[in-house]
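## Example record

The block below lists the input lines for one assembly entry, exactly as stored, with component labels intact.
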Amino acid sequence: MKLTFSIQGSDFTHAGYPSSEVKKVLKQLDIDGKTIKKIVIALYEAEVNVVAHAWKGTATIEIEENKISMLLEDEGPGIPDIDLAMQAGYSTASKEVRDMGFGAGMGLPNMKKNSDELIIESEVGKGTKVKMVNYF
Amino acid sequence: MKLIEIASVLNAKVTCGADKLDGEIEMGYSSDLMSDVLTLDTSNLILITGLVNLQCIRTAEMADIKAIVFVRNKKATEQMIELACENGMCILESPYSLFKSSGLLYQAGLTPIY
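Predicted structure tokens for the full assembly:
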């Protein structure tokens, strides 16, 4: 099963909708609750990152028998130093993002914690690709 | 602790999930930072917060948190209440500060996560 969502930069009203839809599907598939929580938290963090930093993006979710692959591709400023961005507490988020309760530099480490595989590719001035895989 | 007792201790108004007040809550977590909430492994907890926006409800949804109390007399918007109800959550609104709300609930027996 494949699901595709578009994500608009700075649109905090709709952030979380894709994660919410994925959660509903996984529940219907009778996946264990703890596994679902890890998946949707990782996806939600990734979504918030696109909304917070990029101009626009897409989330492509593929659910197979034993795994879920989540690909988030955005057009945005990119990440100049991925290792630095992975450090807990490092953040370039704006005041608006922080006012929403995010932007504390914990998103990427939390995505790593909650996914089984995480690959980040980024090009400065163009955008970022985040791929996460979780096994059931 | 039952949600109905939590509502009573906090002098709180129930804006969503009045049918869930018999539910038992074990732990409490006070935070205005949703990033912190998203790192918790526990789920049977009530989130005590003064941050009132849609992402607060979304965060609770992803983290399997079934109850939220908004403190400092903050009011949830209609959109927030709608989303919370859709997800089977209980929403309380208390006139007390975050510090006072947390203190009263701790005293009443709600346990901290860490």
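Chain B has a mean pLDDT of 97. Chain B touches chain A through 20 residues (CB under 8 Å).
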